[in-house]
């Protein structure tokens, strides 16, 4: 691999008080992010989705190989196929595959095998992890920390979606292999998750979840 050239870092620094305020503001903003399961059919322009995906693509990744691919779906016919395939897997999940403990843990969320939002929401973003790359000659290119990298990119995407004033749902019908077939993705790509993106349906309610406090999630030494 050719050696990279180095350029000056475009770093912006702030006075300490402003840093504290920015941190509080960002926490405030992100604390309002909630997964929603009922969407409005109000349109969201493609240009907005493009900008959000470019933010996702700015995530750090193993050896900067950027082992992700995003398929943004607005086509109603494709959304319908995804809904049908996802509901088929979900029916098996809820009726036979899921252990009792899992179903019990899901009770507070009132979920079931019906996924109408897969057709209502204006956009579905299928996130794929590239388990390996493909060289021009068809040989395999090793990728590193693929799950970590794609998780980071998806986290940035979720925060960008929220920051832009949209809602999303991280949806993981299992298994998700049908996404390769419907979206015609190659064998080196594995579905990571399906993000449902749009405006929340008016009057939507969300579970009264509690977030862990700092002393539960962090240790200072
Ligand atoms: N994929 C199923 C079940 C499900 C599993 C978990 I873990 C969740 O946090 C939520 C749902 C569904 O989407 O209904």
Give the topology, please.
Elements (H helix, E strand, L loop, with lengths): L15 H16 L14 H11 L11 E6 L2 H22 L2 H7 L10 H4 L2 E8 L1 E3 L5 E3 L3 H19 L2 E5 L6 H6 L5 E10 L15 H4 L4
Antiparallel strand pairs: 1-2, 2-6, 3-4, 5-6
Helix pairs in contact: 2-6
Protein architecture, described:
By secondary structure, this protein is of the alpha+beta class. It has a single domain, classed as NADH Oxidase (3-Layer(aba) Sandwich), CATH 3.40.109. Helices cover 40% and strands 16% of the residues. The protein is built from 8 helices and 6 strands. It has helices at 16-31, 46-56, 76-97, 100-106, 117-120, 146-164, 178-183, 214-217, and strands at residues 68-73, 123-130, 132-134, 140-142, 167-171, 189-198. The strands form 2 sheets. The chain has a 4-stranded antiparallel beta sheet with strand order 1-2-6-5. Helix 2 crosses helix 6 (146-164). The radius of gyration is 20 Å and the shape is globular. The mean pLDDT is 97. Bound molecules: 3-iodo-tyrosine. 3-iodo-tyrosine binds at residues 90, 93, 106, 109, 111, 171-174.
Task: Please state the overall shape, judged from the principal axes of the Cα atoms.
Answer: globular
Count of helical stretches: 8
- Class of secondary structure makeup: alpha+beta
Question: How many DSSP-defined strands?
Answer: 6
Radius of gyration: 20 Å
Order of helices and strands: HHEHHHEEEHEHEH
Properties at a glance:
single chain, 221 residues, alpha+beta, NADH Oxidase, 4-stranded antiparallel β-sheet, two-stranded antiparallel ribbon, 8 helices, globular, binds 3-iodo-tyrosine
